[in-house]
Amino acid sequence: MAHKNPSMTDTRHKFSMKNKMARVLWDIVYTLLFRPFSARVFRKWRSFLLCLFGAKVSYTCTIHASVKVWAPWNLELEPYVCIGPNVDCYNQGKITIKEGATISQNSYLCASSHDFTKIAHPLFAAPILIEESAWVAADAFIGPGVTICKGAVVGARAAVFKDVDSWTIVGGNPAKFIKKRTIKDS
Fold first, then answer.
1. How confident is the model at residue 151 (pLDDT cuts 50, 70, 90)?
2. pTM score, two decimals?
3. What residues does each domain of the chain span?
4. Residue 136 φ then ψ, to 5°
5. What is the distance between the alpha carbons of residues 116 and 135, in angstroms, rounded to a whole number?
6. Contact at 8 Å (CB) between 158 and 146?
7. b/e code 41-68 from CB counts within 10 Å (16+ = b)
8. Consecutive H or E run containing 112
9. What fold is seen in the domain 17-180?
10. What is the mean pLDDT of residues 175-186?
């Protein structure tokens, strides 16, 4: 018989029964009432469903039907946020997206990870903050505890593990500074 390592049973993150039941209920609502209504006219309906489960979402947001949200109660979206098709909000930790920010298709926002310095690799949650007018381009990865500051651009397919300064453009894996972002008049 294998001997259980006591440190593994002591350090594993445990979600409450209430959390687990809420996620089961959310998965049912997501499958039956959120995802099937893909037409743009249903964006307020999707915002309503998220709010029903504890999210703080402005009705001016655009949230595509294929967006995955792990825990609506850990999501906050300010006015005019756009979350594109197939974005995955793996929000075991809180994810906050400020006014006018855009998260492009296939991006992955991951607000948790595992502590690889401990033998049991316990789960930890760390919030993600995406500030005003920031843009996370297609297929980017934003890791736990990261802040994308105001007006920053994360290039397509970038992997971000550290904060991104205001009005900068980053890209690559790991994401690195490319240049300052300047807005030009038309």
1. very high
2. 0.89
3. 17-180
4. -100, 110
5. 30
6. no
7. ebbeebbebbbebebebeeebbbbbbbe
8. strand 112-114
9. UDP N-Acetylglucosamine Acyltransferase; domain 1 (2.160.10)
10. 91
